[in-house]
């Protein structure tokens, strides 16, 4: 059994808020219970929205909370050649195709079916077309992928203090998902699957908003010959009384709280971690 390894994987497109703090603290707490470690991964594939100064601020905010991570901190922006090689491999196997469609074109051509994120399911307009000169994204050919890997798909869901559960995954509901964007040779889905494997992640602890994406990730892992980690998708953060934190508080930046004189210990307590996350 490899030793337990988790990751906290924020995108530096804004300041860290309480929702991030909860996820980071929960990762630390679960890692401690498993006698494992947590790595920090900066998910900065978006060259416009992700800024280096926000990455530095994020690392400082985490340190203020009492969370430090082994060096070197992994940055996805430095991994583009690896992502491109993975796309090349999928293209050589006929599993992706170039797509020039704009969001508006997709909306006009798509039916009513939506993917789990609420976006129109891609109608397949560009499937089978040659590689264009114009900027293009790369889409998974879901039908061919499922012909190659027919499933069934499942993964292990774990939760602290609860028995493991098998979750059935339905990747087809994502349709021909984007694996390479027009501006960078990856998408969140491709990069996260490659990096979880490359970093030897055994346990993924992340928000429930990404639970549906795991269905697609399990298929990509199968196609790429990568292991599937165990997953825990945590719910919305709650305050110490067990109430859901109000949306405004949840999105409160840690930096703003610090400026108001709130201490890191108070933030941890407020999120239900007390001071036990600080030992070890
Ligand atoms: N970068 C993603 C986010 O900030 C998290 C990705 C993940 O944990 O898989 O929402």
From TrEMBL:
Pfam families: tRNA-synt_1c (PF00749). GO terms for biological process: glutamyl-tRNA aminoacylation. PROSITE patterns: AA_TRNA_LIGASE_I. InterPro entries: aa-tRNA-synth_I_CS, Glu/Gln-tRNA-synth, Glu/Gln-tRNA-synth_Ib_cat-dom, GluQ/Sye, Rossmann-like_a/b/a_fold. It comes from the Bacteria. Keywords: Aminoacyl-tRNA synthetase, ATP-binding, Ligase, Metal-binding, Nucleotide-binding, Protein biosynthesis, Zinc. One of its GO terms (molecular function) is glutamate-tRNA ligase activity. One of its GO terms (cellular component) is cytosol. Residues 5-112, 173-248 form the Glutamyl/glutaminyl-tRNA synthetase class Ib catalytic domain. Belongs to the class-I aminoacyl-tRNA synthetase family. This is tRNA glutamyl-Q(34) synthetase GluQRS.
């Amino acid at each position: 059994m490899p030793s337990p390894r988790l990751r906290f994987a924020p995108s530096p497109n804004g300041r860290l808020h309480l929702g991030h703090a909860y996820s980071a603290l929960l990762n630390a707490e679960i890692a401690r219970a498993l006698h494992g470690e947590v790595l920090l991964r900066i998910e900065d594939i978006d060259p416009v929205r992700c800024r280096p100064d926000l990455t530095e601020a994020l690392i400082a905010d985490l340190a203020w909370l009492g969370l430090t991570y082994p060096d070197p901190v992994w940055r996805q922006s430095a991994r583009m050649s690896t992502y491109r090689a993975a796309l090349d491999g999928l293209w050589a196997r006929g599993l992706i195709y170039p797509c020039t469609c704009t969001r508006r074109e997709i909306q006009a051509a798509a039916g009513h079916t939506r993917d789990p994120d609420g976006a129109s399911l891609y109608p397949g307009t560009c499937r089978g077309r040659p590689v264009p000169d114009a900027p293009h994204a790369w889409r998974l050919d879901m039908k061919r992928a499922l012909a190659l890997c027919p499933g069934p798909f499942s993964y292990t869901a774990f939760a602290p203090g609860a028995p493991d559960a098998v979750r059935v995954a339905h990747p087809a509901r994502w349709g021909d998902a984007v694996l390479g964007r027009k501006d960078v040779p990856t998408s969140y889905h491709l990069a996260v699957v490659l990096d979880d494997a490359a970093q030897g992640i055994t346990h993924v602890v992340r928000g429930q908003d990404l639970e549906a994406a795991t269905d697609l990730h399990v298929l990509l892992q199968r196609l790429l010959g990568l292991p599937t980690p165990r997953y825990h998708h945590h719910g919305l953060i709650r305050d110490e009384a067990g109430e859901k934190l109000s949306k405004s508080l949840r999105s409160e930046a840690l930096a703003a709280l610090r400026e108001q004189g709130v201490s890191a210990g108070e933030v941890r307590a407020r999120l239900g971690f007390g001071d036990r996350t600080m030992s070890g």
